[in-house]
Design brief:
alpha+beta, 6-stranded antiparallel sheet
Length: 157
């Protein structure tokens, strides 16, 4: 069987470790979630109210939520697509960073849409947009999208 063709998302971590990947990804959520904490602390300070108990609890809560969101995002964001015939492997940022084994699944269907391409893999539907995938035209030709109505396409598996 031919070697798989690998397509990378613009956010592909490359050779970065999990720690580097996580530290790069957690910055924005921490910033957005700490903003209301800091505004609330400023308002309380300007009113002359004590800020320390509430600010510490709110900051800890913001860090926990940001950490949870980052973990969820890295485990679910597909950054690599491997295509080999009618099989496809979808790898998340976390999978790529920890060099997890490639899990092949049948590609049930690929359908062109106005704003990109829909891939139907198992019980998942993945929407790919051209701006996020540098080799989008090669990816589109590798998955052989069809424009037939859903009822006429029969799954080969």
């Amino acid at each position: 069987m031919a070697a798989p063709t690998v397509f990378r998302h613009v956010d592909h971590p490359g050779d970065a470790s999990v720690a580097v990947l996580y530290s790069r990804a957690v910055g924005r959520p921490v910033g957005w979630l700490m903003l209301p904490v800091m505004v609330g602390a400023l308002v309380q300070a300007l009113q002359g109210a004590p800020i320390f108990p509430e600010a510490f609890v709110a900051a800890a809560g913001a860090l926990l939520v940001a950490s949870g969101w980052t973990h969820f995002h890295l485990r679910n964001r597909v950054v690599e697509v491997r295509v080999q015939g009618n099989r496809i492997a979808l790898r998340t940022a976390f999978d790529v960073a920890r060099d997890a084994p490639v899990m092949w699944e049948p590609l049930l269907r690929a359908k062109r849409q106005r704003a990109g391409l829909h891939l139907y893999v198992g019980d998942r539907t993945l929407h790919l947009t051209p701006d996020d995938w540098p080799a989008y035209s090669r990816l589109k030709s590798a998955v052989h999208p069809d424009d037939a109505p859903e009822q006429t396409r029969v799954c080969p598996y």
